[in-house]
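Recall the central idea of this unit: under ordinary conditions, the amino acid sequence of a chain determines the structure it adopts. In this exercise we apply that idea directly, starting from the sequence alone.
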Amino acid sequence: MSKKRICVVTGTRAEYGLLYWLMKGIELDKELELQLIVTGMHLSPEFGLTYKVIEKDFKIDKKIEMLLSSDTSVGITKSMGLAQISFSEVYEDLKPDILVVLGDRYEIFSAVSAAMIARIPIAHLHGGEVTEGAFDEAIRHSITKMSHLHFTATNEYRNRVIQLGEQPERVFNVGGMGIENIKRFKPLSKEEFEKSIDFKLNKKNILVTFHPVTLEKSTAKKQFQHLLNAIDELKDTNIIFTKANSDTDGRVINQMIDQYVMNNSNKATGFTSLGQLRYLSALRYIDAVVGNSSSGLAEAPSFKIGTINIGDRQKGRIKAESVIDSEPNSENILNAFNKLYSIEFQEKLKVSTNPYGDRCASVKIIEKIKKINLENLLKKSFFDINIVKG
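Accordingly, the structure predicted from this sequence is:
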């Protein structure tokens, strides 16, 4: 019996970390063949050429260059078009039985739309989520409608995918992909971690990741400056920055990080990418994740640390009690820090739980893909929910 060809696409460092154990499981399964396509930021010198990290773990079947050296809306749209052309050619060569994608980025939209036209079934991970401040929101739900199997992180997200018209028997709540990394990776000791980043931790330490709010016009610089101003008021606190993605105005934030680290090298350091092991190790030794990254909502709660979630980028996502929401201005952010270090909040952290579960999602996903007849997936019927008319 021939193996099922499972094609996985990755375009960002964070996404690769979430997909790692799924790809490893596919690679080790005797009934499946892993096909790996690497694109987007992985191939960009500006974002750390992270495909080199992937090559140490997996055989890369295809690399798709698509990022133009521009983070304007025009540049990103052109990148999407270039990607769609390239994906169509790659699919013709690889002939996968199913495409597996995660999330909501524009690279993945191009990959999925090309696969839909090529009549390749699509499995979508982390659908049904809400991020009202980013155009990822529309991309995520669009990918849901082009996909044929759905693996969500919570029951609420499963219900939302069904609400979009997907058949319930094709929508599976498997838990968050990031939880599996936490359970499986052996973290670095504090000394090993400090050595790996060439930076000493302080009495207090925070990890900052801030991305542009893509549905707002040119707010990145102003909002990030407010965050830096608030950080400057903190005492005995060291800061580890991880840089922004290749979104609209992402380079603005990254330039500000470089300047801040240069001016404050005694208390700050910055990285294009920490990589999965160092990132998860960092969460063991810091007090909070600060910014607007989904990791602060999905992974940080498992470490019993706080998250200061700034602005609207993650508005609508399910949040643990360990998350403190803040407006993107210095005063509100400082108030959030005061709450973070309060005795009451620190006690609350001890009993907080992660709403994204504690399971190994990759095992469940592989089980479903192996059982399902992929040849009968392409044609879908719209699932109508019963609405009581007033």
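The chain has a mean pLDDT of 93.
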